[in-house]
Amino acid sequence: MKRQVWLFVGFFLLFALCFPFTLQAAAPYYEGKTLKIIVGHGAGGGYDRMARLMAKYLPRYIPGKPVALVEFVPGASGLIAANQIYNITKPDGLTIVTVDRGLPIAQLLKAEGVRFDAAKFSWIGSAAIEATVLCIRSDLPYKTFEDLLKAKEPLHLGSVGPANTSHQFPILLKEFLGLKINLVIYPASAETMLAIERKEADGRAGSYSSLKPFIERGLVRPVIRGRVIESGIENLPVDEDLTRDPKGKAIMAMRSAGDLMGRPFVAPPGTPPEAMAILREAFAKVAKDAELKQEAAKFRMTVEYVPAEECLKVVNFVLGQPDEIAKEFSKYIKF
Fold first, then answer.
1. What are the residue ranges of helices labelled H in the chain?
2. How many helices (H) and strands (E) does the chain have?
3. Strand partners of residue 123
4. Which of 64, 81, 90, 150 fits a 20 to 30 Å CA distance from 323?
5. All residues at 6 or more sequence positions from 212 whose CB lies less than 8 Å from its CB, including other chains
6. Domains of the chain listed by start with CATH number
7. Which of 140-144, 254-258, 323-327 is the most confident on average?
8. pLDDT tens per residue across span 154-185
9. CA–CA separation, 146 vs 223, rounded Å?
10. Cβ distance 100 to 121 under 8 Å?
11. Which of 219, 130, 142 is nearest to 166 (CA)?
12. How far apart, in whole angstroms, are the C-alpha atoms of residue 160 and residue 164?
């Protein structure tokens, strides 16, 4: 009997040495690791602010509580960052990126420099739905759409590049509503707003959440919005309603689709399902964090969770547009 007991004990110890992780709870995957959050735009804009908020609060909801760091990879309206995470970044769940919501349009139009398939990113979700507005400097005599139509001189509007809302929204207003607009490219949103402060630019289009602080302090006023509604701009005219051209309405609707996933986050294709499940669950939880919402409100930002599946619906809607719409859109949006 004693021999049998010692044989059992010996077998147990041998098993423990060979398979140690089966005898104790595995350490959380993210424990002791760093989660890198890449921003495809320069510092100071809405993508930057949302990434910093996520870096601060997201680790609370990830088992193992990793350290989160923000890294900037600006350029080409977010295309450089998207290409990097799609083609180079290791798909280990330790690097995510907040991509520009206009990227599916860049892919649809076969823009030079696109080296990704937006549908194949590992989608985490979005932290917001964003309304797009056109804002004009408050010292200029343009308070309504009709005022803009009557303008004798072109408006010089700031843009951060063709893949971005700041470029796409006004170019369609120019083409389908007859507004006189010249677009001036700046490296990032912060530089664009500085140009407006210096009266080098007359205004810009962009996310209402990003422009709201400048609206509230009287630097700019909103004049036209896209189809997404937010409190405070309900009564602004909608771009699609201002044109009778069915083609224009269809193209404007396609552009506005990205607003439904205003601040999307993705991981590289091929990221393990286990890591994606952790990130998606954490993302859904952090969007409800009262402290996060309170801090976001200081920046006039609203946090609203959009699941990965809904983001993919937007991507597939854009990429599924018929060739004639894509060709027509490509006449106006030049990458």
1. 2-18, 46-57, 79-87, 103-108, 145-150, 165-177, 189-197, 208-216, 246-257, 273-286, 290-298, 308-319, 323-330
2. 13, 11
3. 266
4. 81
5. 232, 300
6. 34-129+258-330 (3.40.190.150), 132-257 (3.40.190.10)
7. 140-144
8. 999 999 988 789 999 999 999 999 999 999 99
9. 10
10. no
11. 130
12. 7
Distance between CA atoms of residues 229 and 280, nearest Å: 26
User: Is it the case that residue 3 has pLDDT exceeding 80?
Assistant: no
The mean predicted confidence, pLDDT, of the chain is 90
DSSP type of residue 184: E
Phi, psi of 178 (to 5 degrees): 80, 15
- pTM reported for the whole predicted model: 0.80
Distance between first and last Cα of the chain: 81
Residue-wise pLDDT for 43-72, tens only, equals 888 899 999 999 999 999 999 999 999 999
Are residues 133 and 225 in contact, defined by beta-carbon separation less than 8 angstroms?
A: yes
CA dist 90 and 148 (Å) reads 49
Task: Give the whole-number percent of the chain exceeding pLDDT 70.
Answer: 92
Q: Which one, of 227, 247, 100, 229, lies nearest residue 175 by Cα?
A: 247
Angle at 221 between CA 106 and CA 39, to 5 degrees: 35
State how beta strands 181-185 and 306-307 pair: unpaired
Considering only CA atoms, which of 48, 54, 108, 52 is closest in space to residue 78?
48
Alpha-carbon span 70 to 270, nearest angstrom: 22
